[in-house]
Amino acid sequence: MNIHGTTILAVRHKGLLVVAGDGQVTMNDHVIKHSARKVRRIYNDKIIVGFAGVTADAMNLSERLETKLNRYNGNLERSAVELAKDWRTDKYLRRLEAIMIAADESRMFLISGNGDVIEPDEGIIGIGSGGIAARAAAAALITYSDLDTKAIVEGAMKIAGSICIYTNDALTIEELKIEK
C-alpha cells in the first residue's frame, strides 16, 4: 500500500513564523481523510513541528525530538542534530518513513532520516508531496507582494493544492511571533 500525502510549509517573514500543513491523507488512489493534523506545538508550545510521511513514524519522531529538547534545555539546533544522528544510526529508527520541520522563534530546520539537519538561507521550507510548489509560491509571494506572513503561507498552500493531487485546502496553521 502506498500512502501519500501532505504538504508542510514554514515561512519566517515580517516578525512572524507561520507553519501550515494540509489535511489530506491518501491511500493508493483514494482520499481517506481530509482533515489530518500534521502541524503541532511541542515543548511548552515554544516549538512548532510539521511532518510528512507515515503518521505513526512522524509522531514517534516528534516525541523523540521533544525528549531531546527536554534533555538539551530547549536548544533546538542541538536537539535536531541529536535526533538526526539517532535516526540515521539506529536500526529501528532508520525504518521510519517521515520527514519533519521543526522551528522556534529564532531557528528553523528540516530534519530527515538521512541525517540531514538543514536550516534554509531564506526562511522558507516546504516538505512533502507539494512542498516544492508551496516553497516556490511562498518565495514568489514574499518577493512580489506586500502580503503578511499568514496570507503568504495560505496563498502558497492554495497554489500547492491546485498543483499537487496529494494536497488539499484543509489547513492547520500555527504561528509564533519572532522575538528580536
Which labels suit this protein?
32% strand; single chain; threonine-type endopeptidase activity; four-stranded antiparallel beta sheet; five-stranded antiparallel beta sheet; 12 strands; Ntn_hydrolases_N; alpha+beta; 180 residues; EC 3.4.25.2; threonine protease
Secondary structure layout plus pairing:
Blueprint: E1 3-4, E2 7-13, E3 16-21, E4 25-27, E5 30-33, E6 39-42, E7 47-53, H1 55-71, H2 76-89, E8 98-103, E9 108-112, E10 117-118, E11 124-128, H3 131-144, H4 149-163, E12 172-177
Antiparallel strand pairs: 1-4, 2-3, 2-11, 3-12, 4-5, 6-7, 7-8, 8-9, 9-10
State the separation between the terminal residues, measured CA to CA.
46 Å
Q: Work out the helix count.
A: 4
The ordered string of helix (H) and strand (E) elements is EEEEEEEHHEEEEHHE
Mean pLDDT: 90
Care to give the gist of this entry?
With 180 residues, the chain is an alpha+beta fold. The chain is 33% helix and 32% strand. A hairpin with a 4-residue loop joins strand 8 and strand 9.
Describe this structure in words.
With 180 residues, the protein is of the alpha+beta class. The chain has helices at 55-71, 76-89, 131-144, 149-163; strands spanning 3-4, 7-13, 16-21, 25-27, 30-33, 39-42, 47-53, 98-103, 108-112, 117-118, 124-128, 172-177. Helix 3 (131-144) crosses helix 4. The mean pLDDT is 90. Belongs to the peptidase T1B family. HslV subfamily. It is an enzyme of class 3 (hydrolase). Protease subunit of a proteasome-like degradation complex believed to be a general protein degrading machinery.
